[in-house]
Structures are given as C-alpha cells and as structure tokens.
Specification:
Elements lengths: L1 E8 L3 E5 L2 E6 L7 H14 L6 E5 L5 E6 L6
Parallel strand pairs: 1-3
Antiparallel strand pairs: 1-5, 2-3, 4-5
C-alpha cells in the first residue's frame, strides 16, 4: 500500500488519515538518519519488518511517497 508522507521534525508522533501520513521525527535530516527513523517508525506502526517499508520518492524532501508491503494481506 502506498502513502503520501509529510515529515515534521523535532516531534514524535504518527498520524494517519486515509492514504496520508503525517509523522514526527526526532532525527536530523543528515546522512539518511531521518529516513531510517521514518522507515523504522512506519514498520513498527504497521507491524512489518523495516525491509517491507520503501521510500519511493522524496528521499531529500519533507514530502515523500512510501510503500508498505504487507505480505499477510492478499
């Protein structure tokens, strides 16, 4: 399933509204640290492994498209 993700920094939350997610990250957007935190948080929220969460577009942007692969559904 694909989601539009908007990142806010210096906050710690996950808010989902349909296919849009607003997520707060504490990591700095340096050397991929914030993207790694984003993947881990979404994996935990959806109950999947980190390898099942992929950032499709927006690696260097606050707005991203993220795909969560849930092998249990389908």
């Amino acid at each position: 399933m694909r989601f539009e993700v908007e990142v806010q920094f210096h906050k710690d939350f996950v808010k989902i509204d349909g296919n849009k997610i607003v997520i707060g990250l504490m990591s700095r957007p340096e050397s991929g640290k914030a993207n790694l935190e984003l993947v881990k948080k979404l994996a935990k929220h959806f109950g999947v492994s980190s390898s099942q969460v992929h950032i499709i577009t927006g690696l260097k942007s606050r707005k991203k498209i993220v795909e969560v692969i849930n092998e249990g559904s389908g």
